[in-house]
Structures are given as structure tokens and as C-alpha cells.
Amino acid sequence: MAYHPLLLQAKPVFVSELKSKPLLGLKRWQSEYQYPDEGQLRAECEQYMADFNSREKLKMQHDKEMAENPDEDGWIMVTRSSKVCATAEQAEERKRQYDEKLEKKKKEILHLYSFQDREKRKQSLVELKRKFQEDKDKISKMKAARVFRPL
Predict the structure, then answer these.
(1) 110: closest CA among 96, 97, 121, 95?
(2) Side-chain-side CA neighbours of residue 102 (13 Å)
(3) What predicted TM-score, i.e. pTM, was given to this entire model?
């Protein structure tokens, strides 16, 4: 940013007295704030993202090694892993596995008719009632033996 030397003084300056006119308005703003050209900006962004991706890859490898290998005392570091895929290939692999699972599930026809679903629900209710009755009997026996300790 280049100010005219007379503009830096405390006393008032008249533009008519100056030998060269200072930049004012839009021309001054354009001289102070220049944007890089698109090619240079794109190259800087791509370089930054490449550096970032390589750092993240190294970090993931280090975390994976720390999770797999015990340290000198024999301790294994517990790390949090997320379901988020690190690479597009892993995402495609997960999607393919999920699709295969859905196709396999569609091929299995458990109940062809609706009455089979109703019978299955009735059987599960009967089973739940039987287990509940067994638990009640078990609790009453424990109470009778005075060993009952509620949680």
C-alpha cells in the first residue's frame, strides 16, 4: 500500500499542490486488494488439500497402529472408530454389502401367507406369557425362602 508522502503529514494537503495525484476511490481499492488469478488460486487450493489428505492418512495409520499394537507396557490404546468411510472405495464396498444383504433378505420368504404371520405373533405372545409365569413362580419361591433381593 503506497500512500503519498504528503498525505502522511498532519497538516492539510491540497491535491492541486501535489506533483502526482494519489490513488483515490476504486483505483486505490483495486491497488490495495488484488485477488490472485484463478489458476494460481486453484493450484494453492489443490496443494493445500493434497497436504491435508496426506496428513489425515498418516494420522489414520498412526491411530490404527496404536489400536492394534500394544505399547511397551502391554497396553492397547482404545480408539473411537466411526461409521464414516475414509475413502470412496470403502463407501462403495459398504453399499455393495448392504445391497447384497437386502437382496438376500428379499429372497427369503418367511411367511407366504398372512395367516402365518398371525400364527407367529400368537406363538410369540404365548411364549412371553409362559416366561412371565415362570418368572413369577421363581420370585414367589425366592420370597418363600427369604433370599429375595430386588435389584
Answers:
(1) 121
(2) 6
(3) 0.34
